[in-house]
Structure formats: structure tokens, C-alpha cells
Amino acid sequence: MCLFVAIYPVAMKSSGSRLFSKGAGPFISVVVHVVIFVVLVKVLVFRAPEKETAIDVQVVEEQIRKLDKVEQEPEKAEILESEAESLEAPEDLAEELLPAEVMQNSLLESELDLSGLDSVANIESPLVMKGLMVGRSESGRKKLLREFGGRYGGQAEKAVLKGLDWLQAAQDENGSWGVGKSRSMTAKQERARLTGLSLLCYLAHGETAQSEKYGETVQRAIQYLLNEQDAKTGRFVPFSKTVGSHDDIGVYGHAIATYALCEAYGMTRMPLLKEPVEKAVQVIIDGQQEKGGWDHRYQHEKWSDLSVGGWQVQALRAAQAAGVKVEGIFQALEKSVPFVQGMHAGEGKFYYRLGNKTPNGDLDYMTGVAVLCMQLAGSNRVDEVKAGLDYLKDAECTDWDEGWEKTGKNKSFNIAYEWYYNTQAIFQKGGSKWSSWNNKFAPMLIEAQDSSGAWKPPAEEKAISKDMIYTTSFCTLSLQVYYRILPSFKKAAVTDERFVFENDVKIVVY
């Protein structure tokens, strides 16, 4: 914009006027220029008004679900996004799962690689499933069921849901699993063991306290274990005062409860769990023997038990994967490897117990324990792992009736324990052996499930018993092997998938 100003002097006739004009002219000129300058500033100079940035924080509370009484009626199992016929019972359950070449043996038979398992340690909030637990989201679970479950993936998932429904109905009012109201030391130890195992079944399925159907079940189980923990010692169960007791099951109860709560902490990052799991893990570390093993009361006795040690290793590995900040977890896992190696009896068989007079002769069901422990501890290439896998390669999955006949003489042993460990060890190896194992193991367990959803030991006539809870938990966990822990031959992939809970409170920033 241009502004032109013209000043035309007016002639004065009188001399006085001319004199006044000479003096006033400069003054008028200055005034006019000042006025022009002001006008130019007003017209040409623009200052943008300050815009105030406002952050409007709205707390949008979604519908809060009130926890109703635990439903006794099992809901219809979720149908996988696979072909409908995959959910139908095949005419011949012994038919081969998939051709060996489809299983990509060149990859599956490779050396084990557990490098991806630690990625779960950086779980964010809201919940993000990574690494070790990547299969516990809905999409991850479906994908891995299709990939490793073969034709039985859909049926296995339906059986798992029926098992979870039965366990939900069997849960005690105080959140535990067990039978009777006894508060004796043995009863408390048994309840801790059964509650930990049952809770692991729900966590393996990706269920947390926020889950719509099983949330209350999970929450009550967690709260029960927390209530049972001794705040001073960190133990979840009392122990026998008898020095050298070989039959105290408290060490099982503590380790399994620790295992379950470490997984719950890793999946949810609940602050309430942080200190309890740290104390519980410290008990296991402090109870480890100099040579890496454990006995039945964390006494540092001269004898060691591989069955006991298996649960300590699993609990420590879960703690490490969950990012529990306790010094010595890695070292304890490292020390556990020579302990397991020392239990090797030769040709892939492992002793149940050493140092307690003579080695236990029941060797055929401990190989899976030993192999899985060394796999989880990161020692995948030691000779004992290879020997154990070679032994399992030649072993057949024990049939339901045959298994109970085999363990009939040993009332303290449950055949489902063997399925739990051997299935995991073989799954971690993969390859054609996994295909043939799954081809027998999966349909065998699916067929053996009772219409109620439980797995009942033969001749079990009670509506509910501790053996039924024990067996149902192990069978459920065994059928969750496809997605429960990422197989060691798979590289852990980070996923941005987040769980959206029904009662989340969201903060929206505008």
C-alpha cells in the first residue's frame, strides 16, 4: 500500500502573514510527518494476537463391569479363524498332522535359541505382550494354534476353555483351589501348589484380573496367595520344623506360587505384586545349594531333588522374563545347569533324586524336566540336552490308561506331570518329532477330558478332589503349549497390540 501526501502552501498577502508562514511552516511539516508516521505504523505493522494453548483433559470412564458371582455354566468356546472343519473331530485321530516337510525341519531342527525370551522384561502399560509371552494375546494365540496345533489346534482350544470353566467352578470362596477347610501345614502347602498351577492356566491364556469372564477368578487367586505370604520371610507356605525332612511339599508350593505371581507381574506390572515377588524370588535364590540344586526345605542338605529343582528354575526364569529386580537371578539359573547335568544317569535318562541314600530308580519321567530346565536356563547345546532330546525322540507319548497303570504303584506321582514336561521339552525342540508327538498327545488328552471339563484320574468317583484339580491343571497347561511360551526356535517379535479392558479409565488430551 502506498500513501502520497501533498502539501500546498497558501500565499499570504501581508508581510506579517509571510513572517508567520516562515516560522510555522517547519513546525507544521514536523507535525504532519509525525501524523503520517503514526498512520503508517498503525496500518502497516501487524502483530499477531497471542493464542493461548489450552489442554482440555477429560476423564472418560467407560462402563465399569460389576463382578458378578462366578458363573457355573460354561460358555460356548471361541471358534478360531481357521477352516470350520478344523474344529470337527477327525475320523481318525491318529492321522498324521502335517507332512514333515511342511514343518520346515531345516528351521525347527536347528540349535535352540532363547535369545528372544528376555524381551518381555520391558513390558509397557497398558499391557503389551512381547517376547516370551507374545502368544498370550488373542491374535497371537490364534496364530500359534494354527501354526503348531495342526488339525487339533481348534479342538485343543475348546478343551482348554472347558478346563478353565471347570477350574473356575472349583475355586474356593477364598480364591484358592483345594479340598476341605483344614488349615494344617500340609493343607496350606497343597493349596498353594494347586492355586499356583490353576492360576498359571489362566495366565497362559492371557487372562488377567481385568478379563471379562475370568477376571474375578484370577484376582481372587492372586489375592489368596498374597494373603498367605509371610511378610517377613517371603514364603507362601509354612515348612516342617523337622530337620532333613524329605517329604515336605512346601518347597513345591512356594516355587509354583512364585512362578504364577511372577507371570502375573510380567503381564500386568501391578505395583501390588512387585515387593511380594521380589521377596519370594529371594527365598529361592537363598535356598539354592552351592552346587546349584535344591532340597525339600531350602535346607542346603547334601541331597538334591530334580523334581523340586524344576519348579525353582521355572520360577526364576519367569522372574527374569518379567524383569523382577532381584540380584542373583541370572547367577542362580547359571548354577542350576551343572546341577541338572549332574543328575544325568546316562543315555538321556535323569535321576529323580541324588544324595538321599541311593539314587531314585524312577528315571523315565524325569528327562522332560531336565531338558526343559536346561533349555530355560539358556544351556541349549550341552551334551545332556542333546542326549535327553534323543531319548525323547525315541519315546512315545504315554497313552491315558497306560500312563495311569504305570504310575499306579507310586501314589505321589501323576502321569499328567510327565505330559506337562515332555510336551514342553519336545515343543521347544520342534521338528518332525513335535509333529508326531502332537499327533498322539493332543487327541489323547482331548478325548480323555470329562464332559464336565475336568480331567479325572481313573476310578475317581468324587465330584472334586485334589488329584482332579492337579490333573486338570497339568492337562490344561499341556494343551496350552502352542502359545504359552514362544518356542525357542522362533525369533521373538515385538507387537504393538494392546489389551483393552472393559473398565479402563482413559485420559484423552485435546
Structure explained in plain terms:
The chain has 510 residues and is mainly alpha-helical. It has two domains: 44 residues, no CATH class; 436 residues, Glycosyltransferase. Helices cover 48% and strands 4% of the residues. It has a two-stranded antiparallel ribbon with strand order 1-6. A two-stranded antiparallel ribbon has the order 2-5. The chain is elongated and about 125 Å long. The N terminus and C terminus are likely disordered.
Question: Descriptors for this entry?
Answer:
mainly alpha, 510 residues, disordered N terminus, Glycosyltransferase, two-stranded antiparallel sheet, 48% helix
List the helices and strands and how they pair.
Elements: H1 15-44, E1 57-61, H2 105-108, H3 138-148, H4 153-170, H5 185-204, H6 215-228, H7 250-268, H8 271-286, E2 304-305, H9 306-322, H10 329-342, E3 344-346, E4 349-350, E5 353-354, H11 367-376, H12 383-394, H13 400-406, H14 415-429, H15 431-448, H16 466-479, H17 481-484, E6 505-509
Antiparallel strand pairs: 1-6, 2-5, 3-4
Helix pairs in contact: 4-16, 5-6, 5-7, 5-16, 7-8, 7-9, 8-9, 9-10, 9-11, 11-12, 11-14, 14-15, 14-16
